[in-house]
Specification:
- The chain contains 11 helices and 8 strands.
- The protein has helices at about 45, 75-90, 105-115, 140-145, 150-155, 160-170, 180-190, 195-225, 240-245, 245-250, 265-285; strands spanning about 5-10, 10-20, 25-30, 50-55, 95-100, 120-125, 225-230, 255-260.
- An 8-stranded mixed β-sheet has the order 1-2-4-3-5-6-7-8, sandwiched between helices.
């Protein structure tokens, strides 16, 4: 059973989903734009048979607090610091990370800071290579190079309900598999007062992620973490070349491409979960059968 909890980090509430036995190996699921931990709703119950699963909402996303921009600078470095503190607050000291979209530069910053804590990396359309960026990034990159009010305003097109719906449906062979509440919830949360400015700040700061790609790549070479890429090959933002590039710096990386879009879990949660369970079973030595349910966390608490 998944529980829904909050932990207080630096005075702000971080909402998170938790499932599985607390004495099992932990997987930390990190979402991206424009979504929240809701994107993992179908994956969590499958992984929780064998793993302790934690899925937080980033500050400014989902049901976590959105601190005022006057007191909190929305940068990826700061988001990573909050998630780092969050893991310490709830008592995580070793965990695998599942990184998607924005979750990749956040999770990989955790790996740079605490390589000893990372047991494995699962990247689902979580990019760390420039060749993985498609032309859809052009207007955002223009804003990086020329951070004018006009270029900032142009990015508001990414915040509309139509754009959010398109992110879910682009590259999907059967649109009837995509639950409409997913993009409807994302759109409602994006529409909260002031959230548009938060998202535009992060669009600008995404340049810092590209700047740190070489450090991520050096980490892959130096530490050779157990690394699995499960990629929706029809993603309009992150190309399959980004998945294949992991092998250049970590030859043992395993890459699986699915006939899916950006939100591959919407249509391929079962298939992706099967690959993850097999991979982690081999790399972490966790048996593939279901765990005994004794000791599983089934109550909601506040950290």
């Amino acid at each position: 059973m998944t529980t829904y909890q909050r932990a207080v980090v630096n005075g702000n509430a971080i909402f998170y989903r938790e499932a599985g036995a607390k004495d099992a190996p932990t997987i930390l699921l990190l979402h991206g734009f424009p979504t929240s931990s809701h994107m993992f709703r179908n994956l969590i119950p499958i992984l929780a048979d064998r793993y302790h699963v934690i899925a937080p909402d980033l500050p400014g996303f989902g049901f976590s607090d959105a601190p005022d921009r006057k007191t909190f600078s929305y940068t990826f470095e700061n988001l990573a610091n909050v998630i780092d503190r969050f893991t310490q607050t709830i008592g995580l000291d070793r965990y695998a990370i599942y990184v998607f979209d924005y979750g990749a530069p956040i999770g990989l910053r955790l790996a740079l800071t605490h390589p000893e804590r990372i047991t494995a990396i699962i990247s689902q359309n979580g990019n760390a290579y420039e060749e993985g960026l498609s032309q859809a990034w052009n207007p955002i990159q223009k804003y990086w190079k020329e951070p004018t009010s006009a270029n900032r305003a142009a990015l508001r097109d990414f915040l509309t309900p139509e754009a959010t719906r398109s992110q879910y449906l682009y590259g999907v062979a059967d649109e009837t598999l995509v639950a409409p509440e997913a993009f409807t919830l994302d759109s409602a949360l994006l529409a909260r007062h002031g959230n548009d400015k938060i998202q535009l700040d992060l669009s600008l700061d995404h340049a810092s992620n590209v700047a740190v790609y070489p450090k991520f790549q050096e980490y892959f070479r130096a530490h050779r973490p157990a690394l699995l890429a499960v990629w929706g090959k029809n993603d309009p933002f992150f190309l399959p070349q980004g998945a294949e590039a992991f092998r250049r710096d970590n030859p043992d990386a395993e890459v699986h491409l699915f006939d899916a879009g950006h939100f591959a879990l919407e249509t391929h949660a079962s298939e992706i979960a099967e690959v993850i369970l097999t991979f982690l079973g081999q790399r972490l030595g966790v048996k593939s059968g279901p765990r005994e349910r004794t000791g599983q966390n089934t109550s909601t608490t506040q950290a």
